[in-house]
Each structure stands twice: as structure tokens, then as C-alpha cells.
Amino acid sequence: MALPEPLQSLPAAPLGGESQAPFEALLALGLYVAIAVFLIGTLMGLCWWLGHKTRSPAKGEPYESGVLPTGAARLREPVPFYLVAIFFIVFDVEAIFIVSWAVAWDLLSWAGFAQISFFIVILFLGLVYLWKMGGLEWGPRAHYQRRGKERSG
User: Fold this and answer.
1) N or C: fewer beta carbons within 10 Å in the chain?
2) Major location, coarse class (predicted)?
3) pTM score, two decimals?
4) Could you report how far apart the first and last alpha carbons of the chain are, in Å?
């Protein structure tokens, strides 16, 4: 079978898949790392040397949009935002896998369909389990119901 015209003019890749000698590749990587470390160190040193070094009690105070802080910074209960953020990350990763499958669906055939279906079913079962355990409920009502179950149980 003859190769198309543009592919016939390309040079053959060396066996083993390496285009450079291992020493040259490691030397290039080492040089890159050395330059990066030098630049980062130089910039951090300049920031330390040129930065202001004055200390005062007012500088050590927390500052939030010009409003003086009141109360403790630590919350007694977890913030629902973190739960929403974790769900977003989980479903975002799930979407990446499903889109990757959708791009190559014609190459994967029925075996790929079975695998992505299994993946979706496992994620759905995890979501149902989380829902049944009360992980999706937050707020005062859910908090007091959960506390009542702990005391009675």
C-alpha cells in the first residue's frame, strides 16, 4: 500500500520513539528547571528586598472591606458551599469522561457504550446513596432532624 504524497516526504522516526538522545533530553530538562528556579528565586528575593518591612498592630488586624470583624472566624457547622463545590467538581469530572466517550463513540462501539453506562449507573447509585443518607440536605430543619436522630439512636 503506497503512502499519500505528503507522508512520503516525511523523514522516518527513529525506533523507540525518541527524537533526541536521552542525555540531550535530560540536559534540556535540567536547564529548563535551573532557569525556572533561578527566575523564581530572583523574583522572590527582589520582593523581599524591595518590600516594606514595617510592622504595626493595625497591620496585623484582619480586614474585610473596611468593616471591623465581629465574632469568631470559625463556624460551628460546615458551610453548604463546600458541599455544592464538591458536587460541582464530581459532576464536572463526570462530564469530562462522558464528553471524551462521546467524541470517540464510533471507535468504541457497544463495548464503550456498556462501559460508559456502567460508569453513569455507579455515579447515579452514589448520588442515590448520598440522598438517602441526608447528604444533600442542609439548613436548620435538616440539621435539627439529624441531631434528633443522633440523640434518639
Assistant:
1) N
2) membrane
3) 0.42
4) 75
In angstroms, rounded to a whole number, what is the distance separating the alpha carbons of residues 98 and 80?
27
- Residue of 72, 69, 66, 86 whose CA lies nearest to 135: 86
CB atoms within 10 A of CB 90: 13
The partner residues of 67 in beta bridges, in order of sequence, read 64
pLDDT at 60: 74
Q: What is the pLDDT of residues 72-117, one digit of tens each?
A: 767 666 667 777 788 888 888 889 999 999 999 889 889 999 999 9
- The answer to whether the CB of 142 falls within 8 A of the CB of 134 is yes
89 and 100 Cβ atoms separated by less than 8 Å: no
Distance (Å) of CA 134 to CA 72, 77, 92, 128, 137: 28, 15, 22, 10, 5
pLDDT above 70 covers a percentage of the chain that reads: 69
Dist. CA 124–CA 146, nearest whole Å: 24
